Amino acid sequence: MRLAFALLLACVALTAQAQAWPAKPVRLVVAYPPGGGIDVMGRQIAEKLTGMWGQPVVVENKPGANTIVATEAVAKSPADGYTVLLTTDATFSIDPHLYAKLPFDTQRDFIPVTMLVLLQQLLVANPSLPANTLDELIALAKVKPGTINYASYGSGSQPHLSGEMLKYKAGIDLVHVPYKGISLAVPAVMAGEVQLTFAGIATSMPQLKAGRIKALAIGGPKRSPLLPQVPTFAELGYPEVETHAWFGLFLPAGSPGEVVSRIYQDTRKIIEEPDFRQKQLIDKGYDVVGSSPEEFAAYIRKDSESRARAVRISGAKAE
Question: Could you list the pLDDT tens digit for every one of the 319 residues in the chain?
């Protein structure tokens, strides 16, 4: 009888604690530097959550080691709902296959909360490249093997995996040129240092409009409404060339289920607000998702399997 009463009191205490959340500021740890697309989105969402929760949601940028710095910090944080990770597919779909050892277990140490958005990258080229379509690029590469370069932002990065998969499926020889950051790849193409790279719509659009680069193809199952003239790799016969990335929220394993649900529901409300959805997401080339924790976890499992194959084909390794 006493045990049952004690358990009842514990359940009541836990329920009250969950209802009181958040009772103090919440940290949103962004695995990338300030100023990029994921950081901007994180700050916009944090501002709106602050208004909804009545507690500050403080953005903390922890870039480094291909998102490992931020991810490790969150993995070691208390599982109380007050530390949230905002990161990309690099952390959960690519890094586990790229690194021999990580200071955390992506499956054991985290709870997926929601995928905010999915974004597809474009294959863009310097205007001087004598190829205006993917077929023309492949034909040119076969005639002149090893003479066409493509930029990435490091071994195992999304552009590297996409470029190597294109090489593998098309039977061509492109030369990989890794740069030190995502912000350097498109300027390198514009300057003619390399002929190709893979880049997001938001990054590419101003340069496309100015004629400084041209788009040959885009990833995903359908064309972008922002660039309806650009065909997908799938419709061109290369569905295996995946260029997507995603932004998602995670909590340390063991975080209260009520808090997981609250963060999911409230962030989904934000990204589904008509004005925010259109101006901050769709107009910038993002596909709005807002998946449930269960849907997100299932997606990550499938995505990780696909990226494992791409990493094997690329031969990419990290230390």
Answer: 444 444 444 444 444 444 599 999 999 999 999 988 999 999 999 999 999 999 999 999 999 999 999 999 999 999 999 999 999 999 999 999 999 999 999 999 999 999 999 999 999 999 999 999 999 999 999 999 999 999 998 889 999 999 999 999 999 999 999 998 777 899 999 999 999 999 999 889 999 999 999 999 999 999 999 999 999 999 999 999 999 999 999 999 999 999 999 999 999 999 999 999 999 999 999 999 999 999 999 999 999 999 999 999 999 887 5
- Look at the block and give the residue holding tokens 């989105």: 41
Query: CATH number of the domain at 121-218, please?
Result: 3.40.190.10
By DSSP bridging, strand 148-152 and strand 196-200 are parallel
Q: In CATH, what number does 25-118+244-314 get?
A: 3.40.190.150
Same fold for the pair 25-118+244-314 and 121-218: yes
Judge whether 162 and 216 are in contact, CB under 8 Å. Answer: no
- The CA distances from residue 300 to 94, 128, 306, in Å, are 10, 39, 10
Length of the chain: 319
- For 114-182, the DSSP string reads EEEEEEPEEEEE-TTSS-SSHHHHHHHHHHSTT-EEEEESSTTSHHHHHHHHHHHHHT--EEEEE-SSH
- So where are the chain's domains? 25-118+244-314, 121-218
